[in-house]
Amino acid sequence: MPLPLFTIGANMASDSQICSVALNMLGQLPISSLSQNAPRAEKCNAIYETIRDIELASHNWKFATVYVELVIVDETPAFDFDYSFQLPQDFLKLVRTDSNSIKYRIVGDKLYTDDDEMYIEYIARITNPGDFSSPFTELLIARLAKDLAWGVTNNKALSIDLAENYKDVRRKATGIDSQAGTPRKLYRNAMNEARS
């Protein structure tokens, strides 16, 4: 049965609650934690963080968008650039830069460029479910249910239904998020004013 869209609050208290809603869609009992000694909890634990990060990086979610000035790393870049910058620890995906040069390269946790200062807009790894938007929470639940379906139930028809449900939830969730505001222009002077 398809999940009703956006009826679940954005402030779910825990990862286990999100997984429990997904398991409920499979006709399974809820779990108290991802480390619970139960096969269904183990299956959730095996994929939860990976699926969360994949879905975060798959769209420019407004709730996960961060603006920051990067810090120069004290090292000589190994590539054909003048400067190396440290990316934030929670960095998942670059959305855009405010730079005089459009030439840059990301390697590992560094951004290389010829500019001596770098401001970026990026998608952050958000780990607290209370910080998720309602559309993202429901998308994550739909994705978990889809990915867990066959391994938990061995029910081919249910797996197919949940795969279709995921596509529908994804289309609606990203559409709603995209309407949550116009793209922000990224200007250095505006960022400097905001910090002062």
Main beta sheet strand tally, sense and closure: 4 strands, antiparallel
Helical region count? 5
Order of helices and strands: HHEEEEEEEHHH
Task: Please report the distance between the alpha carbons of the first and last residues.
Answer: 52 Å
Explain what this protein looks like in three dimensions:
The protein is built from five helices and seven strands, in the order H-H-E-E-E-E-E-E-E-H-H-H. The chain is an alpha+beta fold.
Short account of what is shown:
With 196 residues, the protein is α+β, with helices and mostly antiparallel strands.
Task: Please describe the topology of this protein.
Blueprint: H1 15-25, H2 39-57, E1 65-69, E2 71-72, E3 83-86, E4 91-98, E5 104-107, E6 110-113, E7 119-124, H3 134-153, H4 156-178, H5 188-195
Antiparallel strand pairs: 1-7, 2-3, 3-6, 4-7, 5-6
Helix pairs in contact: 1-2, 1-3, 2-3, 3-4
Record keyword descriptors for this entry.
disordered C terminus, elongated, 41% helix, 2 domains, single chain, 5 helices, alpha+beta, four-stranded antiparallel beta sheet, 196 residues
